[in-house]
């Protein structure tokens, strides 16, 4: 890996972490298409750097909401939690499925499902679901209408997105829309709910690296990946939420179909 490839992978992570097109699928397919591979500990360390970058992006963009939730922690589970405290409750409920599913099945997913064929299939299935949900009844409700059951459903969608190609943002936003939330309201809640999941992913990968020795020459590569994913991630969140106010998700669904088709043709031609 050189600085250019580190920057490109950081851009891919920053874009696809928040757009409904699956960051894991893009990293799997990018490495398969272009033949880039890395020694496992190096690849994990780079993934940690990119996860830290996207985590910084979402925390910076939603800094007012995050600070309000931090201030509301003492009363979050009391009788009068307030809007920020209620959001903490919903995020806590929504995070439960990925904690359980991730603890039990992450290693199995890593071992069996991180392949181009699985990613292409999940991309195609997800595209069909996005197109179908966009054609459901009008979505007019805000986050204040979300119940604990709804937050749990969005959390289950986030857990399912451990399968490469599903897309965390795509699955959670689509589930929120299916529950009647406006697109931008569903995206805002989904991105805030992604903070514990991204933090947990970075921590898990970091623990796996505690005995690894990567060398000082890797530091610039990690720094480039982290900074690039943070900057691109911040801009992606900012403009994607604006986009969702008045645009449907069809363009992302058709992109998923195209990428899945290209992948299947590539696999068939090998």
Low-confidence stretches: none
Shape: globular
The profile of the biggest β sheet is: none
Pairing-aware structural class of the strands and helices? mainly alpha
One letter per element, helices H and strands E, the order comes to HHHHHHHHHHH
Question: How would you describe the oligomerization state of the chains in this entry?
Answer: single chain
Name the average pLDDT.
Answer: 88
Please indicate the count of domains: 1
Question: How many strand units?
Answer: 0
Number of helices: 11
Strand share of the residues? under 5%
**First CA to last CA: what distance?**
25 Å
The helical percent reads over 70%
- Give the radius of gyration: 18 Å
């Amino acid at each position: 890996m050189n600085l250019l490839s580190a920057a490109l992978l950081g851009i891919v992570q920053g874009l696809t972490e928040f757009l409904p097109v699956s960051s894991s699928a893009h990293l799997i397919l990018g490495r398969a298409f272009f033949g880039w591979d890395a020694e496992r500990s190096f690849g994990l360390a780079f993934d940690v750097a990119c996860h830290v970058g996207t985590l910084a992006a979402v925390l910076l963009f939603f800094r007012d909401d995050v600070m309000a939730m931090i201030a509301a922690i003492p009363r979050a589970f009391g009788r009068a939690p307030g809007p920020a405290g209620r959001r903490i409750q919903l995020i806590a409920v929504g995070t439960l499925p990925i904690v359980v599913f991730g603890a039990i099945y992450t290693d199995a997913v890593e071992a069996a499902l991180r392949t181009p064929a699985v990613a292409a299939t999940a991309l195609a299935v997800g595209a069909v679901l996005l197109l179908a949900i966009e054609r459901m009844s009008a979505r007019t409700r805000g986050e204040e209408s979300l119940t604990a059951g709804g937050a749990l459903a969005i959390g289950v969608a986030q857990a399912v997105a451990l399968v490469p190609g599903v897309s965390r943002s795509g699955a959670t936003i689509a589930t929120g829309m299916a529950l009647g939330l406006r697109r931008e309201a569903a995206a805002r809640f989904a991105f805030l709910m992604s903070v514990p999941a991204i933090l947990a992913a970075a921590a898990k990968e970091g623990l796996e690296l505690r005995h690894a020795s990567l060398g000082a020459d890797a530091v610039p590569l990690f720094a480039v990946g982290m900074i690039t994913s943070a900057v691109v991630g911040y801009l992606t969140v900012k403009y994607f939420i604006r986009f969702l106010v008045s645009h449907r998700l069809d363009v992302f669904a058709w992109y998923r179909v195209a990428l899945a088709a290209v992948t299947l043709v590539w696999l068939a031609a090998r």
